[in-house]
Amino acid sequence: MPELPEVETARAVIAEAALDREIAAVDDSDTWVCRPLPPGQIAAALVGRRLVAANRRGKTMWCDTSDDGPVLSLHLGMSGRIVVTDPDGHPVEGGDPVRGLSAVSPDRDPVWDRFTIEFADGGVLRLFDKRRLGRVGLDPDLTRLGPDAGQVRASDFRVRMSRGRAPVKARLLDQSVIAGVGNLLADETLWQARLDPHRRVDTLDRRDLDVLLRALRAATKRAIRRGGVHTGEVIAHRKPDGHCPRCGSPMARATVGGRTTWFCPVEQV
DNA sequence: CCATATGTTAAAAG
DNA sequence: ACTTTTAACATATG
Questions:
Q1: Is A2 known to be catalytic?
Q2: Formamidopyrimidine-DNA glycosylase catalytic domain spans which residues (predicted)?
């Protein structure tokens, strides 16, 4: 489920529940998720230290470590979640208040744990990721990430968004332009802004770009507050026979930016 | 078996 | 050379 809002929730969970706890052991044996580092390298870097801060830009998280240790980077990929447990093994859930993982969820099956930190107090932090597209590493390179979608300034947004002639949705999804927007948040934002996902960025005027940024900020804040991008107004209508929740027109499906795209062909122009 | 999936990125195409 | 699109990645699910 991870787009910017879900990642922010995961970051907040780490910040509130995983900091300043001594790390006793680390399982970094999944060489796909932890590539290209060899097994044991992340463990060697973390054991004996503590996480001291949890940061995020777009969908990338990183944690500073004590004693001038290296930075731990975490990316949830397409299906990753962060679970932190207290010393009694009880999960400290942030995240989706409606559909959050529960202690008895089948999603708890450890076969899908791709990376685990065991704290000296008995609790753990783990990356749970069925699809295995998440990534864990050390000292991440953030230079190829644009400014966070929730913090980018209007003037910067306009310049970055309007360069070139890609479809506006493809540009929203480009993490080097704006970091954090995924497929669902892009559809929600464009629907709120009443912009056709196909619109080439060079056809957007300043008014369009300001409307788009307002929609992006609102959709992002709302998704964080309500527990995820799937709580967006139009998301439930992204399906065959779905209808625009504003005007009732049948939703249209297309591929834009390489991703399945749903939009209202009447209102989004 | 086929299609689809909330992400990233190397390779190909333009 | 730079920008944009496609394909592939690993895995689960309908």
A1: yes
A2: 2-134
In a domain, A100, yes or no: yes
State the DSSP H helix or E strand holding residue A19, giving kind and residue range, or none if neither. Answer: none
What is the distance in angstroms measured between the alpha-carbon CA of A144 and the sugar C1' of B14? 23
Decide if A54 contacts A148 (C-beta within 8 A).
Answer: no
**Residues A29, A63 within the same domain:** yes
CA-based angle A180:A217:A179, to the nearest 5? 15
Q: Are A68 and A78 in contact (CB under 8 A)?
A: no
Nucleotides of B under 7 A from a protein CB: 4-9
pTM above 0.85, yes or no: yes
How many Å does it take to go from CA A79 to C1' B6? 7
What H or E segment, with its residue span, contains residue A212? helix A206-226
* Closest nucleotide relative to residue A133's CA, C1' based: C10
Structurally, chain A folds into a number of domains equal to 2
Q: A130 and A11: one domain?
A: yes
Q: Answer yes or no: do A134 and A215 share one domain.
A: no
Residues lining strand C, beta carbon within 7 angstroms: A 32, 78, 111-112, 130-133, 163-167, 170, 201, 255, 257-258
Protein CA A216 to sugar C1' B7 (Å): 19
- The integer distance in angstroms from the CA atom of A249 to the C1' atom of B7 is 30
Told to judge if A3 belongs to the known catalytic residues of this protein, a careful annotator would answer yes
Least confident residue range of A53-57, A90-94, A105-109, A263-267: A105-109
**Residue A101 has what pLDDT?**
40
Comparing CA positions, the residue from A50, A45, A38, A37 lying closest to residue A123 is A50
Name the β-bridge partners of A26: A117
